[in-house]
Specification:
By secondary structure, this protein is α/β, with parallel strands linked by helices. The protein has eleven helices and 17 strands. The chain has helices at about 25-30, 50-70, 90-95, 110-125, 140-145, 200-220, 235-245, 260-265, 265-270, 280-295, 310-315, and strands spanning about 1-5, 5-10, 15-25, 40, 80, 100-105, 130-135, 160-165, 165-175, 180-185, 225-230, 255-260, 275, 300-305, 305-310, 325, 325-330. It is globular and about 55 Å long.
Length: about 325
């Protein structure tokens, strides 16, 4: 099953058995609003603080996916879960009550791709009948940790993205609705970007590198996919990605789809470069893309969430922002 330098092609592909998407009010008012399972009108989700609100989103997404599949937490062999918060506390507190053996992940906004990759590898290898892959983000908890307190009301440059409030959950098993036929694991790429208000610029090189590695490993090109899906490059990152790939001889202009651009309408919702966060790609995949794969409207996509690997400590110490991107092949 080892394919090329960075990829795996599954001889017996695992499946996405079922999935769920939970989002906040702003996401529900966006272009994909009618696609999500649950829209939470209360940004606190009945919790006393933003971090516990994000945990509540993650727990609800996991429970919704399990309910839709007719499965229980005890049926899950492993849980692969992560988020943007320090010590991944949205996942640890959110998933605590489910009591599933857990691998905690930090891939920044690439976590949906990382968790799906590891779940697929585990099921395909015969180590589990079912795995649960979950991730989340929350606008207020992310702003509090990485930028400024909301009360500060700082102005946001046009290159910034708006962290999606939402959680996506995916059950991976041996039979299901959508096949996972392969994965390409990304490398960390650092082009020296130090602007934390321009995540698209920091992540675009990693996305370009993963795409090129994937095409080389599988002997494919853009024509072999209905869509090449990035997680949250936004408007700025998309232009950089397309330019970088054209230098490598690939034109993705017609095939590229960015979850961060799709989830918000910048004209009416004022999100500048688009959406971001772990939840951005997860809820867009669960709410919008997987139903199209399930119905056959889409036959094959390369889903590749991107992540910016910074912390407040590294940023304040003046370090640059490495990016990473993990790709998953999803087929009807």
């Amino acid at each position: 099953m080892i394919t090329g330098k960075q990829s795996i092609s599954f001889e017996n592909p695992p499946y996405i058995v079922n999935y769920a998407s939970i989002v906040g009010q702003k996401e529900g008012e966006g272009p994909l609003g009618n696609c999500f399972d649950v829209i939470e009108e209360d940004p606190m989700v009945g919790s006393p603080n933003w971090e516990q609100a994000e945990s509540a989103l993650q727990k609800k997404a996991a429970e919704t996916a399990l309910q839709k599949a007719g499965l229980k937490p005890k049926d899950m062999r492993y849980l692969f879960s992560g988020d943007l918060l320090g010590q991944i506390i949205a996942s640890s507190f959110g998933m605590l009550d489910l009591q599933i053996p857990m691998f905690g992940l930090y891939g920044a906004c690439s976590t949906a791709g990382e968790s799906l990759s590891l779940s697929a590898m585990t099921v395909a290898a015969g180590y589990a009948d079912y795995c649960l892959a979950v991730t989340s983000s929350h606008f207020a908890s992310a702003e509090k940790q990485f930028r400024y307190p909301l009360e500060y009301a700082s102005q946001r440059p046009l290159s910034t993205t708006w962290t999606v409030t939402g959680s996506g959950a995916f059950i991976v098993g041996k039979q299901g609705k959508v096949k996972i036929t392969g994965v390409t694991t990304g490398k960390m790429m650092d082009y020296g970007v130090k602007d934390s208000m321009n995540m698209g610029a920091a992540m675009a090189p990693a996305a370009a590198d993963t795409i090129c590695a994937h095409f080389k490993d599988f002997g494919r090109g853009p024509e072999d996919y209905d869509l090449i899906v990035t997680g949250d490059l936004g408007v700025v990152g998309r232009e950089l990605l397309l330019d970088l790939l054209k230098q490598k001889g690939f034109d993705l202009t017609e095939k590229h789809f960015d979850c961060g651009i799709a989830i918000f309408d910048d004209i009416t919702q004022d999100t500048h470069s688009g959406g971001s966060g772990c939840g951005c790609s997860a809820v867009t995949l669960a709410g919008y893309l997987l139903p199209k794969l399930e119905s056959g409207e889409l036959k094959r996509i390369f889903f590749m969430p991107t992540g910016a690997l910074l912390s407040t400590v590294s940023f304040n110490e003046g370090q640059s922002i490495p990016g990473i991107c993990h790709g998953v092949i999803l087929e009807h």
